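Our preliminary data section would be incomplete without showing what the modeling component actually yields. Below, a chain of 110 amino acids is followed by its predicted structure, encoded as tokens that our downstream tools consume directly.
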Amino acid sequence: MEKPVLQTIPSGKEQKDALDPRVLSSWIVRLKAEREPTPPARDSHARLAELMRSPSVAALLDAAQNLAERQQVQAEAALRQILLDLKEMDELWSHVLLKEGIARLTSQYH
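Predicted structure:
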């Protein structure tokens, strides 16, 4: 899987590497296209424990802390909002892709 492209954007006096929000949408769609039904893990508890210690979950928690500081809210509230926003984006992309697929099928048969 290829790495997302970083886009340099100015932030005050300094510049930082930041992802363009469109990259997030692209990855959501790409992962939906690649998603294959996966058999349940033999030991779901062990897999959950492994995921909870992963660098990506640590980065997500860091992002929640960052958002909490920016918005002056509790870190748990920030984490909840991040997860809700990601879930909504995933659901919206599912809807968009379904509608596009239906439109293509409809146009093929009419």
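The helical segments are 21-34, 44-52, 55-71, 75-109. Residues 67 and 73 are 8 Å apart (CA to CA). Preliminary results of this kind motivate Aim 1 of the renewal.
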